[in-house]
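Worked example

This section walks through a single chain of length 156. The input is the sequence exactly as stored; nothing has been trimmed or padded.
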Amino acid sequence: MTDLAELMDAAEALARGYLAKVDEVGPAVLVQFPSGETGLLALEWGNDQDKALRLAALRLLFRETGVTAYALWSECWMASHVVKAGEPPPDPAKWKGVMPRDNPERVDALILIGAEKGRPAVIRSYRKVKRAGGATLEPLLDGPDRAAGRLTDLLA
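Given that input, the structure is written out below as tokens.
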């Protein structure tokens, strides 16, 4: 593989394949090496401190093994406030600092973050729809595809 979009497509296909059989999938990262070969790493993290430590180790591993690009997926909750016609907008103070996991309007989602050296990271997000025996993914955001944050800078 030579193109980040192709790497992300491959990671998306893997995540969809797993979710077709089960309704939850752990975080994982599909990596590309300078040779063009790819590898898949299953990830696990608990709280935010654990995640920070594991991501620091992953950053070091990527540097030591020469990873040139990656596509990482993780389940998450996303929340937004959709204002229906005739309803007043939500009070921003009510939700300031509230994590999506604590928001009753949250949705199950999967994010897919792609990054390669020298380019801004990109993101795709999907609503996870549970069904008998598994789950499917539906595109969630049509907004900007640029991403920033601790999952986007693993090649730094």
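What to look for: The beta strands are 28-32, 38-42, 69-78, 107-116, 122-131, 134-139.
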